[in-house]
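Title: Comparing notes on inverse folding

I've been comparing how different people in this forum approach sequence design from structure. To keep things fair, I'm posting one structure and asking everyone to reply with a full sequence. Here's the target:
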């Protein structure tokens, strides 16, 4: 049974997602688009986001990391193409056919097994080769290309890679893009080598959010936006580079707002300790609000005695250590607070805003992690 009025929930703005997609589609300039929904749609909720994306015919693909995410997309009603970026277990490769998936290939044994399956089923499998250009993560090197080309030629229903891709290592955390340019040069060189080997891919793709925003020359035939689709800049350096290029402001709006209800209020005298480890001690009479949210939900323990939440349109500081399921905040200076009032952990309340980027800074991490770690158990609802 689902509680009709949960104490902790996430709101997803339809209009913000629409604005973000409109901006990305304009930046893409007619290229095919694969919106990334891995990591539970960057913490936003995969079923809810897939439902919204399904209504946009301009979105050609969803991209995911795992086979299970791809299956979840199909079960959420997605009928168009799905690009699987991560590894698929060898004993589950038949799902590529049954769920009509396009896997990214970086292991020769996977390609051979898929080729044998495709020929046996007499059905084309569209594969994408991941080229290693300098990130040194998943990908095949230039010297491995002849062996992969031989495998493509061996299996009739593979024929050639449908797509070829790479991923930039240092395009968003810097305003100097020399390394990204070297990767792009290597990518072009390897694609030319594939052509000489007789297996020219049909489409090329290299641009995730930062490259899509900053460098048209990386767009090729398909782009793969991730965090920008949810209204967040990949980094402040990406934003700065974009603005220095003359880019307009306000092209993205955060889709997600995270809320909780106050479940208890208590008045503490001076010299009272709060929470585990006695890490905070009051210096004056203090009114404390208890929120039913903690690090299990994704409110990082490193936010202890560092972060704020919004209550009554004002910032209320976190006091003591963030617990597994509870967090305490100081509402001494917030008038009229009652049990049941809303607290905003990420988002806007009145004239105040707490961005995911601010929480990430307080926790010593990045907005990607702050969002992706939001528990899938939190109730998510769509709002206009």
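Reply #1:
Here's my take.
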């Amino acid at each position: 049974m689902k509680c009709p009025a949960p104490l902790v929930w996430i709101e997803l703005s339809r209009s913000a997602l629409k604005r973000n997609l409109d901006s990305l589609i304009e930046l893409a300039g007619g290229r095919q688009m694969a919106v990334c929904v891995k990591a539970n749609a960057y913490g936003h909720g995969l079923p809810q986001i897939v439902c919204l994306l399904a209504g946009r015919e301009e979105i050609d693909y969803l991209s995911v990391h795992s086979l299970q995410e791809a299956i979840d997309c199909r079960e959420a009603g997605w009928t168009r193409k799905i690009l699987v970026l991560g590894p698929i277990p060898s004993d589950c490769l038949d799902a590529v056919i049954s769920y009509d998936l396009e896997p990214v290939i970086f292991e020769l044994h996977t390609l051979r097994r898929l080729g044998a399956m495709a020929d046996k089923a007499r059905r084309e499998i569209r594969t994408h080769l991941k080229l290693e250009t300098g990130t040194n993560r998943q990908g095949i090197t230039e010297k491995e290309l002849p062996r992969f080309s031989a495998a493509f030629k061996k299996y009739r229903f593979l024929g050639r890679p449908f797509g070829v891709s790479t991923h930039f290592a240092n395009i968003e955390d810097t305003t100097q893009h020399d390394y990204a340019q070297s990767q792009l040069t290597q990518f072009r060189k390897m694609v030319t080598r594939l052509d000489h080997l007789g297996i020219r891919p049909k489409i090329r793709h290299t641009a995730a959010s930062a490259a899509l925003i900053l460098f048209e020359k990386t767009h090729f035939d398909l782009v793969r936006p991730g965090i920008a689709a949810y209204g967040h800049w990949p980094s402040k350096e990406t934003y700065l580079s974009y603005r220095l290029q003359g880019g307009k402001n306000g092209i993205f709006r955060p889709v997600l707002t995270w809320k909780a209800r106050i479940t208890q209020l208590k008045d503490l005298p001076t010299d009272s300790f709060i929470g585990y480890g006695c890490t905070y001690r009051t210096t004056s009479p203090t009114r404390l609000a208890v929120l039913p949210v903690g690090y299990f939900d994704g409110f990082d323990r490193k936010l202890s005695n560092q972060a704020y939440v919004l209550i009554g349109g004002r910032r209320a500081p976190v006091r003591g250590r963030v617990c597994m399921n509870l967090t305490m905040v100081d509402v001494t200076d917030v008038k009229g607070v009652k049990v049941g009032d809303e607290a905003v952990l990420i988002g806007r309340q009145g004239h105040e805003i707490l961005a995911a980027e601010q929480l990430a800074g307080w926790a010593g991490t990045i907005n990607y992690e702050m969002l992706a770690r939001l528990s899938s158990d939190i109730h998510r609802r769509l709002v206009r």
